[in-house]
Amino acid sequence: MHFIVAFFLVQYAHSVMQHTDHASKWDNFFKYARIIVFSLVATYYIAASPDWFGWIWNLGLLGLVRFFNQNDDFKSIRSTAQSVLPFVGISMVSDFFEQVFPKFYNSYDQFFQIALSFAFIFCFVIWFYARKQQKVLTQEREERLREEQIAKETKLSLEYLVAERTQELTQQKEELQKTIEELKATQNQLIQSEKMASLGELTAGIAHEIQNPLNFVNNFSEVSVELCQELEEEIDKTNIDDNDKEYIKGIIGDLSQNQQKITHHGKRADSIVKGMLQHSRASSGEKEPVDVNALADEYMRLAYHGLRAKDKEFNAALVTDFDGTIGTVNVLPQDLGRVFLNLFTNAFYAVAEKKRKLTEAGQLGDYKPEVKISTKKFDNKLYIRVSDNGTGMPEHVKAKIFQPFFTTKPTGQGTGLGLSMSYDIITNGHGGVLEVDTEEGEKTEFRITIPIA
Amino acid sequence: MKILVVDDEEDVKSLFEQKFRREIRAGQFEFSFAFSGEEALEFMQKHPSEVVMILSDINMPGMSGIELLKKIRADHPSAPPQVMMITAYGDAANHDQAMQLGADDFLTKPVNFNELKEKLLLL
Predict the structure, then answer these.
(1) What is the tens place of the pLDDT at every residue in A238-292?
(2) ipTM of the assembly?
(3) Domain carrying residue B57
(4) Which end of chain B is more exposed for a tag (fewer CB within 10 A), N or C?
């Protein structure tokens, strides 16, 4: 009986422990426990079933229960293990009576046997019940594990989905940002071209209004010069004292000179007005097939020699890089020529200025003024670049160069209409783009892009 | 030679008088002035067949130079004066219209007086 209880207790404890985290730790312990149980039962039969052997069993069982009680790893089997205590207790009491009061024991032998049997059955009922419960627990645990596994998988797939969505959103966001930037750029361009258009109209309007009074100024000042000459001639006919004559002639001379100054400055204003009027007529005329390379070359030389005529010292390398495959392109030849003239005049002016400044500072070194024109036909577009290694422009100048009347040249040398007109000709006249790229003190590059129908 | 100058700018009068001072003194030219198309027609009615030459601005308030030209060509077919149009807008459309309506010449402002003088002396 003791053997069965001990054997099943060890067996039960082991099977429970196998489901916990400490299984491997106690494997050896259970192996030895089993060996001890078997050796005890073997010893019992070898020793011809001595009565006192029950005590060894009982003490062994008590030791085992105590051991389970003291070690925290066995918490889960403690209560079940304790179910052997009634059996051990009754067995000990019955053994005690059997040996100390054999008479009393013999007369109540059956009671003791029945009590022991009940305790024995009680053990197994408890164990059986515990096993059943444990099975349910195990099942529950497995179910939980399975659920956890499913949850983990769901979580993984969700995480993947989230990552995918996040990436999609990021991409969308980037695309939107790009679109917004493009929109902003387009808006700026629109504002710019609107500004240019209204300024152009205003300019033309002003020009018309100014031209008439300006014509009077010029005409009257001219005729006054003639009148002064006449007056001088008339004075000679009179017999005024020579000294007085000289004095009067002096005054007339001054007057005449003043009138000439008025004429001179009037003419200056007139050329500005002419420029403004040209501005308004920029996109008139008919488009015709033109050899753009030849046109550019012609105006490059024209601008160069124009500057040479004013400044004999001036010199610059003219570099051309023409795309021979362009052939003829439908453009407004006079207008485009004007654009070329403006761009080249500016380019030559920039290199001349840089040379002058470097010479003044004594740092000319090996600076070689260079003005370059390159053309390229590609993808139904005509690309023209006019670049120079001249003075370049600071940012605030670059921002204003296409505005009418903006000039950096000294008074009287530039009207500030050249680039504004060029802009108008390229954008409105040809549906193209005129852009500028510059580095202060280093270089400037104007880029024309014209769509070829 | 009697010349009628039509222009809404009154200073044109003194300008012409000064520019052509010698010729006026020498009796080569005789200038009259009208400051609108209507005034010009009125003048021509008062002085029929006197005016040999008309110099007219095109852009005037009221009757324009072109309308004046039409009226002259319609009302005075028998003794047609020479008509020279002057305008600030020297574009082809303006020029062609004036010539088609019977203008004898076309000048753009600012007027080159030496050229004008030569042209007048040729008549």
Answers:
(1) 888 889 989 999 999 999 999 999 999 998 888 878 777 766 554 556 788 889 9
(2) 0.80
(3) 2-122
(4) C
Structure confidence at residue A310 (pLDDT): 81
Which segments of A273-344 are extended strands (E)? 288-291, 317-321, 328-331
Residues in chain B within 8 Å Cβ distance of A216: 9, 11, 15
The answer, for A227 touching chain B at a CB cutoff of 8 Å, is yes
Check: CB of residue A440 under 8 Å from CB of residue A392.
yes
> What is the pLDDT at residue A197?
67
Give the one of A214, A223, A270 whose C-beta lies nearest to B18's C-beta.
Answer: A223
How many whole angstroms separate alpha carbon A190 and alpha carbon A199?
A: 14
In chain A, what residues touch B21 (CB-CB under 8 Å)? 227, 230
Q: Which residues of A touch B91 (CB under 8 A)?
A: 281
Sequence spans of domains, chain A: 2-155, 193-280, 288-451
Interface check A230 vs B, CB under 8 A: yes
CB-count burial class (<10 Å; 0-12, 13-18, 19+) for A329: buried
Token match 């010199």: residue?
A315
Cβ within 8 Å, pair A219-B19: yes
CA distance A353 to chain B (A): 36
Strand partners, A439: A443
Overall number of domains in chain B? 1
Cα–Cα dist A227/A219, whole Å: 12
Question: CA geometry: angle at B71 spanning B65 and B75, to 5°?
Answer: 150
Q: State chain A's mean pLDDT as an integer.
A: 85
Q: At the fourth CATH level, which superfamily is domain A288-451?
A: Histidine kinase-like ATPase, C-terminal domain (3.30.565.10)
DSSP state of A281: T
